[in-house]
Structures are given as C-alpha cells and as structure tokens.
Amino acid sequence: MSIRRCVGAVTGMAALAGGLAVGVTAALPTVANATTCSGGTTVPGTGITSCTSTGTVGLLSGGLTINGPAAESWSTTLNGQTQLLFDTTPADEGLVASDLRGLLSTGTGSGWDITASGTAFTGTATGTTIPDNSTGEVLAFNGGGTPATDSGVPTAACYYGALLCGLPTVTNPTTFPMFVPTGATVVPLRIYNATAGTGTGVIQIGANGAANPGVWSVTLPPSLAVDTYKSTITLTIAAGP
User: Is 133 a member of any domain?
Assistant: First the structure.
C-alpha cells in the first residue's frame, strides 16, 4: 500500500508539472503586465492560436550642429615682411559637423552649409587692430598646414567609422584657402558644404592626420604694434542647399 501511494504521488507531480507546461497560454491572462493581443485566430488542424500586436519605435531629431577648436593660436617675431602663420596644433585642426535631423521622405538629407566670420583682431594692450578688408585677407581656413598644401579641400570622414555616415559632396567652396572676413560688420563666408542628399551623420572635416587637414592661418602685415591680438571666430551651420 505504501508503495502504491508513493507511485501515485510521483505520478501526480508529473501530471501537475506537465499541466503547467501545456497550460502556459491559458495562464497568461493572470499575469499582471500582459494584455490580450488583437486578431486572435486558431490555425485549422493545429490548435495553435496566433494574434498580432503593434511594435512602436520613437525617434527624435538629433539636430544640426557644428563643433570646432576651442581656440586657435599663432605667434611670431616681427621681421619687416608679410608673414603667413599656420596653427598646426593637432587639437586645433578640423571641424565636426553633425547632421542628425533624420532623412527626408525621399530617403536623403537636405545638405548643409558652414559659414565663418570673426571680430577684428584687436591688441589687448594697445587696442590697435590688424587691418582687414570686406573679403578677408587676415584669417583663413585651409586644406593644409603649409603654403604648398593649403589649397587642398579639407578631407571629410565618418567620425564613428566607415559606412556610419553619408560623406558630403562639397561643391562650394572647392578652392582653398578660404579667407574669412574679420571686423565689426562683416558678412559670414561659406567655408564648407554638403549638397542635398549628402553629409548625414557625424562628419569629421579635416581632422588631424587626414590627407588634407583643416588648418587655420593668419596673414600679418610687415608693420604692427607689438601686442597680443585676439578675435572671436564664429562658426555657423545651417540647412542647405
């Protein structure tokens, strides 16, 4: 008798466990975080019930932004001649353009334009300025760090690695260096662009080590007051074309 009871108990446990496994579908409505999906149907001849639910992905725009060096610097000794100085400090080279607005209905981006301008280079001690004209002849953005290489177009690359962005097609400007006007009332100058359908994602422009690094330069006249001259350089990115 005791043997029969033991076997019966074991058989009952097996049946209970089997009932839990088979009854998973029937038990779901008792789970607090589950809801009934729509369109439930039974596949003929199988006893399998299927239904549909809705998957939703929320995607927000990351915007259109531009980042550049925290500062640029140049230094030299007066020599009675016009001097061209390049800032080749690695941290001062290049720009980062981020087009994270999302694609248009056509599956492409609208492109963008980067412009630059600066206040007059003004001596901190004397208050004198480095003379400039309306088209710019002092500050320039270049595709290289020497007179022999500064005419190159700064190289664009995907910031997070190949294939993780849409590289820009640059059509205006294509001739460098680009002289950026400095003064109290100047018109910002376009120094880089991405045509419609290009330039999506996070783009490095002329990073240090690139084939054509993006380097800032200044051209100084032969005669200036000995001083430290400062200018506030403003970069702006706007939707193109």
Answer: yes
**DSSP secondary structure letter of residue 29:** G
pLDDT for 186-227, tens place per residue?
999 999 999 998 999 999 999 999 999 999 999 999 999 999
- Is the pLDDT confidence value at 110 over 80? yes
67, 86, 66: which is closest to 76 by C-alpha?
86
Q: Tell me, yes or no, whether 15 lies in a domain.
A: no
pTM: 0.78
**Lookup: tokens for 78:** 């007066």
Q: What is the pLDDT of residue 214?
A: 97
Count structural domains, the chain.
1
Flag whether 177 is in a domain.
yes
The reply to whether 5 falls in a domain is no
**How far apart are the C-alpha atoms of 157 and 65, rounded to whole Å?**
16
State which residues form the domain around 141: 63-239
What residues contact residue 151 under an 8 Å CB cut-off, 6+ apart?
142, 143, 144, 175, 176, 177
Helix (H) or strand (E) run with residue 17 in it: helix 2-22
For residues 8-14, average pLDDT:
29
Cβ(213)–Cβ(144) below 8 Å:
yes
Task: Report the C-alpha gap between 14 and 4 in whole angstroms.
Answer: 15
Region 48-62: mean pLDDT is 86
Q: Provide the 3-class DSSP secondary structure of residue 130.
A: coil
Name the one residue in this structure whose structure tokens are 């550049």.
68
Decide if pLDDT at 19 tops 60.
Answer: no
CA-based nearest residue to 104, from 8, 14, 239: 239
Cβ atoms of residues 34 and 28 within 8 Å: yes
Neighbour count for residue 83 (Cβ, 10 Å): 16
